[in-house]
Design a protein that fits this description.
Layout: H1 16-29, H2 42-49, H3 53-65, E1 69-72, E2 76-79, H4 82-94, E3 103-104, H5 117-128, H6 131-134, H7 144-158, E4 167-170, H8 173-180, E5 189-192, H9 198-206, E6 210-213, E7 226-229, H10 243-256, E8 259-263, H11 279-282, E9 288-293, E10 305-308, H12 314-320, H13 330-341, H14 344-371, E11 375-379, E12 385-391, H15 396-405, E13 408-409, E14 411-412, H16 415-420, E15 435-441, H17 450-460
Parallel strand pairs: 3-13, 5-6, 5-7, 7-8, 8-9
Antiparallel strand pairs: 1-2, 4-10, 9-10, 11-12, 12-15, 14-15
Helix pairs in contact: 1-3, 2-3, 5-13, 7-13, 8-9, 14-17
């Protein structure tokens, strides 16, 4: 403890014990000294704070009188639970404490049944047995054998044209954007079709880019800018960009010299149509930075992402890449490489697709049964979300607040996004009946709980 309470003016001399008292009271009230913690002895504290023993003892006696500490004979002074109880009371009075959600349809969790933990555990254990290899740091660009497997996988399944040398592995898309931004800084401006991707927006802004959404379509964007988009889930409710729209985008990008950043988020979970070729493949591998992640294919806790750089950016990366430390676990990279090589990734995706198609259909059915003719439900073309349209006079924020109070988490549909890409909904042509749209994740709540959760939601909305 590096506090020196001795450097006060003569006028403050008699108030030193108050300084000590307030100092410890603050630590206790903020939870920095927990119940049961032993305070320094009077002698030790006087030495640490460069004060007299009388000053320290007076402060301790004041703390004890107010219940913050207690004196134990032959032992010393200890923090009581008084401060903890006071914090709890303040939280209750100010509404700080948020009610725990019973059913969280807004969560990014995946269904436990979608992942074979015992298989992944086996590959991680195998990787951890490679003692010599684990004694060194991971390759800055990612383990070479993993990049080789990724290039083969992407070529087969996403029509991505690349070599292992074009792939950069990292722990999450954010860490990869930090590597990419200095290489494209001269472009200056980024347009994002998904403005809810706050993590990406923050990185671009931290690197000095001007970031904004798409208002009038990509044809209205200035030349030489960056267009960040998620074509496999172009809207929050799971709409997939069609092949015609992709081809038109590629023509505009070539004409205006855009750099496209294709975040292929949820591409493996396009349920109701054949996979659409990636923009990177349609461009012949030029002018597009392709980004992917294993957080959805495997588990959110496995922070493993990758980007495929176009040939024109490789020289810039080769100058700088070696100076970036690898952020993804080397052991997990080794495990993932063998996991892909043995065919488990493809089996995992097939299993997950089947599960989430079933859950999305069931959730839609339950919504319409619980809400009757007051709601309609639409499964997204991709991802994990179901769009629910509910006839109600309540605003979106009121729906969310009431649902959370009842223990049900939901997401709201951004109205500006809806207006830009209108979805043909069940209530779209109904006149005079206000409609609110919410999103429910079919992944994060067990299917057996759907009916109970939806009944709670309906009750909270007083429908």
């Amino acid at each position: 403890m590096e506090k020196d309470f001795s450097r006060y003016s003569d006028e403050e001399e008699t108030l030193r014990y108050m300084r000590v008292y307030r100092y410890y009271r603050s630590l206790i009230q903020e939870g920095k000294l927990e119940a049961g913690t032993k305070l320094p002895s009077i002698r030790t504290c006087s030495i640490q704070l460069n004060l007299s023993r009388t000053t320290v003892e007076t402060a301790y006696l004041m703390l004890a009188a107010e219940g913050y500490i207690i004196s134990k004979p032959q032992s010393g002074y200890y923090v009581t639970d008084f401060g903890t109880r006071r914090r709890e009371e303040r939280r209750q009075q100010t509404g700080e404490r948020k009610k725990e959600l019973l059913f969280d349809f807004s969560s990014s969790r995946v269904d436990r049944e979608s992942f074979r933990f015992e298989v992944w555990r086996r590959y991680v254990k195998s990787a951890l047995r490679q003692d010599e290899r684990l004694l060194s740091y991971g390759e800055p660009q990612g383990e070479e054998e993993l990049r080789e497997e990724l290039s083969r996988y992407l070529r087969r399944h996403r029509n991505v044209i690349c070599t292992p040398d074009q792939i950069v592995v990292g722990a999450g898309v954010q860490s990869l954007l930090h590597i990419l931004c200095p290489m494209v800084h001269e472009r200056g401006q980024v347009f994002m079709n998904n403005e809810s991707f706050h993590q990406g927006r923050t990185v671009f802004e931290d690197h000095g880019f001007l970031v904004s959404g798409i208002e009038s379509g990509e044809s209205g964007l200035p030349k030489n800018s960056i267009f960040y988009l998620t074509p496999s889930q172009i809207t929050s409710w799971g709409e997939v960009m069609g092949i015609g729209e992709r081809m038109n985008l590629m023509k505009t990008a070539a004409k205006k010299n855009f750099l496209l950043i294709e975040d292929d988020y949820n591409s493996e979970f396009g349920y109701y149509s054949r996979p659409t070729p990636s923009l990177q493949g349609l461009s012949g591998g030029k002018g597009v930075v392709y980004m992917g992640t294993f957080s959805r294919m495997l588990l959110p806790s496995i922070r493993m992402s990758f980007m495929v750089l176009p040939p024109e950016l490789l020289p810039a990366y080769q100058k700088r890449g070696a100076f970036y430390n690898q952020t993804a676990s080397k052991a997990e990279q080794i495990a993932l490489c063998q996991f892909i090589r043995d065919g488990h990734l493809e089996a995992q995706i097939r299993k997950s697709r089947r599960l989430y198609i079933q859950k999305a259909k069931l959730l839609c059915k339950e919504i319409e049964e619980v809400f009757g003719d007051r709601a309609a439900a639409h499964p997204g073309e991709a991802g994990f979300l179901v769009l629910a349209e509910i006839q109600t006079e309540l605003s979106g924020e009121e729906i969310k607040m009431r649902a959370e109070k009842a223990g049900v988490g939901v997401r709201l549909v951004d109205q500006s996004e809806w207006d830009r890409r209108p979805h043909t909904g069940f209530f779209a042509q109904t006149q005079g009946k206000p409609v609110q749209r919410i999103l429910l994740s079919c992944a994060s709540v067990p299917a057996a709980h759907y009916e109970k959760a939806l009944l709670l939601l309906k009750q909270s909305l007083e429908l």
